Structure formats: structure tokens, C-alpha cells
Amino acid sequence: MSKIYDDKRNTPPQQAELRRMIGNERFAPYASKWLTRQRHYAQGSVRAVNQVLNSLVFPALASRRMHSFTSTVVEDFIMSMDERSVGLASQQNAFDILRKILLDARRRGGIVEDPISGVIPPEYIPRKITIPTVDEINALKEVGSAELGVIINLMSGSGLRNGEAYAANTERMVADDVYRITEQIDGVSRKPARLKHRKHGEFRETPMPESVRDSLLRFVKDHGVDANGYLLRTQRSPHWAHTTLQYQWGAAKKRAGITKPLTAYSLRHFFASNCLCSGIPVTDVAEWMGHKDINMTFKIYRHLMPASIGRAAKLLNKGL
Fold first, then answer.
1. Which DSSP symbol is given to 55?
2. Residue 31: burial class (beta carbons within 10 Å; 0-12, 13-18, 19+)
3. Where in the chain is the domain with CATH 1.10.443.10?
4. pLDDT tens sequence across 202-211
5. pTM here?
6. CATH 1.10.443.10 fits 134-304, yes or no
7. Long-range Cβ pairs for the range 311-315 (8 Å, 24+)
8. Of the candidates 114, 130, 77, 155, which has an alpha carbon nearest to the alpha carbon of residue 261?
């Protein structure tokens, strides 16, 4: 308490007034302004955050003043999501967004004490993933369009997200075995956008197996590219959208006779499993897939990693 008193006494009047204004602001408008300041967020991320705020956070906290947030308020919010039967994955997303907003307000002086201190966050345990077999992937490519084949090869062979695969471009083949991912196509607006978890101008690189490279070059030879080097377009748009992929994926699954609950994202799971079962370190896999948190990579794919203790014992024995 003495520290709080000293801070108030030693804070310049103008700064104290700013803190008071922030503290008196209600959560909904503060959260909206916070989101506009997140210039590093891609368009899809902004839409996702808005959806979580509007559906999960605002109904419970929209009118609360920022200075009134405490750990008890946050814990009550988590319990309210339990009462509303909100799934753990959605609970974790909502808590993460709320935490970022509250810590921003505390950093700016609107909240005196840490409202997250001592709070146990919701823990989402990823459910078992569904991984397509090589035969299923080949069957989908055989019955699907040439454009869908590009998507399938980039996602299963190089680990791209769907929006990154929409942006397939000959300029990204920076070496015979390296594909540089510099952008994605927003699946709603059909416009180029920055990568997830990256700032403008940032990129990541991923392995490009020979089969992936050959498939891209074959597509270019047969179908060409547009003026900017992009491979994929539709009759009415210069870029693919999520609806394009959903339609073509569903049609290909039906023609291939695949009833297993596979989504296009399952192709990324195939890439990860192929890497990890080949002994490639999970740190490399997380980087290639563009994961922000390696812990999530580990949680999802840990069961695919070869037993390491026995392998280590054999390797160490060679040096003894």
C-alpha cells in the first residue's frame, strides 16, 4: 500500500490525469482502441480477435471500468465461460486476449495491481489430430484440379498454411530446396496480407522437397502464372478464397471416396508428422510451420516424436 501511495504522490499531475482517464474508461471501447493499435496483426487475426471479443468477452465485461479489474474479476470471468459451456480452446483464446488488454492498461497506469496475478488460465489440451495417409493425399491430387494439387503439395510437403498456399508464387522458390514464405492471401478479402505472427517485410523459409518443386514447375509450364508470378487464380478473381478451397476440397474428397474427417489443415499435420517421424527437431518444425509458441507444437505433435532416450543411449555408447 505504501508503494501505491508513493507512486500517487510522486506522479506528475498530467500523467496522473491520464492514468485516471484510462482507469475510468469502460472495457469495450478500451479493447477496441487497443486492437486498432495492434498494427502487426494480419487482417484475419483482427477478425478473429473481434469475433472472440464480441461473442465471449464483451457480454460479460463490456461495461466494466478498467480500474476495477482484479484477479477475482478475471477468475469470475473464466468461471462464467464454464457456466456458458464454452469449449476450452475458446476459453484459452478469450483469456489470452483479455490478458493482453489488461496488461496493456496496467502498463499505461489505468490498473494499479496486476489483475492476472495468481489466476490459473484455462488449459486447452489439443484433441487427437487426424492425419491423411500418402495414398489419401495422392488420391485427392489425382481427382482434384491442378490448382488444388498446388495447395495440397505446398501444405503437405512444405507445411504452408492455406492462405500462404493461395499466394503460391514462382518468386518464392529461392533455391532448389527452399521456399520462402513472404505473404498470405486473406481468405475472405482475397487480397495479399502479412504473414501470421510476422511484421510487414518479414518472412520464413521452409524445405521444398523435389516433388513439391517439380509439381510447381509443371503447373507453371502447363498453366502459366499471372503478371506478378502468382500461380492460383479463379475465373472471377486474381486470388483464391477460403470458399474456393472448401468447395474444391469437398468435391475432391467425395470423388476420391474419402469419408475420414479430413480437412485441408490435415495436410499441415501430415507435414509435421513426416518431419518428426524422420527425426527432425521439433524446434525446426515449429519454425517452418510458423508457430509462435513451440509449446503448442510440442503439445499437438509430441506423440509423433520418436522415443529419444533409447536413441540417445545408442549414440552415446558409440563415444564410450
1. I
2. buried
3. 134-304
4. 899 999 999 9
5. 0.69
6. yes
7. 311/279
8. 130
